[in-house]
Amino acid sequence: MQMTPEDITAIWLSLKVALSATALSLPFGFAVAWLLVFKTLRGKVVLEVLVNLPLTLPPVVIGYFLLLLFGKNGWAGKLLAEWGIELIFTWKAAVIASAVVGFPLLVRSIRLGMESIDRQLVDASRSLGASWHDSLFTIILPLSLRGIFAGASLMFARSLGEFGATIIIAGNIPGRTQTIPLAIYDYASSPSGSAMALSLCLVSVIISVAVLLLHEMLGKQLQRSTDQ
Question: How far, CA to CA in Å, does 101 sit from each of 156, 162, 165?
Answer without folding.
Answer: 11, 8, 8
